[in-house]
Amino acid sequence: MKNITIVGGGLVGSLLAVFLAKRGHKVNLYERRADPRRTNVYAGRSINLVVSHRGWTALKAAGVNEAVERIVVPVRARMTHDRDGKLTRLPYSIDERAIHSVSRGELNKVMLSEAEKFPNVGLHFEHRCTSVNLETGTCTFHNEATGEASAVPADVVFGSDGAPSAVRQEFMKHRFTFSQTYIEHDYKEIAFAPNPDGTPRMDPHCLHIWPRRWFMMMGLANTDGGFTGTLFMPHEGEFSFDRIKDEDDLKRFFEEHFRDAIPMLPDLAEQYFRNPQSNLAIIRCAPWTYKDKVALIGDAAHAIVPFYGEGMNAGYEDCKVLNDLLNQHGDDNWGTVLDAYHKARKPNGDAIADLSLRNFVEMRDLVADPKFILRKKIEGRLQAKHPDKWLPLYSQVKFSDIGYKTAWDEGLRHDRIMEQVLAMPGIEEKWESEEVERKALGLLKLP
Ligand SMILES: Cc1cc2nc3c(=O)[nH]c(=O)nc-3n(C[C@H](O)[C@H](O)[C@H](O)COP(=O)(O)OP(=O)(O)OC[C@H]3O[C@@H](n4cnc5c(N)ncnc54)[C@H](O)[C@@H]3O)c2cc1C
């Protein structure tokens, strides 16, 4: 059994610790921040995430799904809010399947506690990785509390230290391809309070979206009846964080664009000016592994924009695939396992990065577009009648374990088909007809 160092005790590092501990390895997990179960390290940054099917697949494989099930809220549809407060509900699937909303902070706490249950796991908080020797697997940590430095040898090292990964920084000294692209949008957390009796003020089983073309707000339910909202906006320009300088600007902005949300946000100004404005970047790199010693996993390998709600799910799937490869090749064959891990996951990491950018357009813009809604209806009907032939892209990503790359390729084919279907004369009236169905299925047969 190996001595394994995990750098970063966030969402992915903590699940990885469980997988590796179950296999009998000695796991030491080092986290830069203090223990979130003892201090509120997530204050103002406690965004909500959705766990999708592939995330559950990984949690089940690790045997920790029940602990997570206790802290999630099922979400079955999008609910769009237009400027006049008109609501439109769009189910995620024809059979009302759910994704699950969870607070990032709560999930992290639960997963750390699950990892800590194993006697062969050591959790070390306030230990910031400052360097890694990729050849020997020795990491250096700076103890944030005492200021001391320590060198920790290991057989294998995982960098699950998120988008700004210190482990990945070491890869830069070798033959390594890397790109980091910031999008023009930043985000800010805004919490929606529950009613005084603790009941939710909106349907908790919907992801609420205020799509406004160049910017948007969304809200996901918490188990306490409140919602965690996130405002996504360019950092500069006509509609941007830069334009909101004081309470009057903020009030005007919300009255114009998010009027129906105002009664749910009595402390909006306080929250808005207190909570940090964070940026969003896409990181692509290769290779994710160094010989049989070091591997990147989760956001450290593939940070993506959050608009498909798949960053963590992709990281969870990384852990599951790695575990499957260890089952296949054994626990003493790390060169083969890490090589196979990179080959299996890299194309999927790239695909979900592309898919997530595409979903941004869909969320902020298209969900309010009648053509888009019609397309969803036609696809829903095709799926209901021919589930073996037509699985919409969203369902492939959120409700299946189909690889992101396969889903993306199939989704692009669906786009081409639906473009022709939506161009049929009178489609608005005859979308439920046999003729439309025949056309779509006929096009599906073409190469
Ligand atoms: C607004 C927003 C909404 C999102 N919504 C979703 C969603 O709905 N569904 C979804 O699946 N994903 C979502 N994501 C993405 C998700 O948050 C990330 O993909 C996920 O957190 C990645 O987990 P990770 O463990 O790889 O990285 P992180 O969660 O970033 O954890 C990395 C950890 O490493 C620690 N660390 C960093 N540097 C060091 C160091 N030098 N030494 C030691 N420790 C270090 C950090 O303190 C941190 O605890 C969203 C992201 C954002 C920003």
Notes on the protein architecture:
- With 447 residues, the protein is an alpha/beta fold.
- Among the domains are: 3-42 and 104-179 and 281-359, FAD/NAD(P)-binding domain (3-Layer(bba) Sandwich); 369-445, no CATH class.
- 39% of the residues lie in helices and 24% in strands.
- The protein is built from 15 helices and 19 strands.
- It has helices at 11-22, 53-62, 65-69, 104-116, 166-171, 247-257, 268-274, 299-302, 311-329, 334-364, 370-385, 393-398, 404-422, 427-430, 434-445, and strands at 3-7, 26-30, 48-51, 73-75, 77-81, 87-91, 99-103, 121-124, 127-133, 138-143, 149-152, 156-159, 177-192, 206-211, 216-221, 227-234, 277-286, 289-290, 294-296.
- A 7-stranded mixed β-sheet has the order 6-5-14-15-16-13-17. A 6-stranded mixed β-sheet has the order 8-2-1-12-19-18. Strands 3-7-4 form a 3-stranded antiparallel β-sheet.
- Strand 14 (206-211) and strand 15 form a beta hairpin.
- The termini are far apart.
- The model has no long low-confidence stretch (mean pLDDT 94).
Question: What is the element layout, followed by pairings?
Answer:
Blueprint: E1 3-7, H1 11-22, E2 26-30, E3 48-51, H2 53-62, H3 65-69, E4 73-75, E5 77-81, E6 87-91, E7 99-103, H4 104-116, E8 121-124, E9 127-133, E10 138-143, E11 149-152, E12 156-159, H5 166-171, E13 177-192, E14 206-211, E15 216-221, E16 227-234, H6 247-257, H7 268-274, E17 277-286, E18 289-290, E19 294-296, H8 299-302, H9 311-329, H10 334-364, H11 370-385, H12 393-398, H13 404-422, H14 427-430, H15 434-445
Parallel strand pairs: 1-2, 1-12, 2-8, 5-14, 12-19
Antiparallel strand pairs: 3-7, 4-7, 5-6, 9-10, 10-11, 13-16, 13-17, 14-15, 15-16, 18-19
Helix pairs in contact: 1-4, 1-9, 2-9, 9-10, 10-13, 13-15
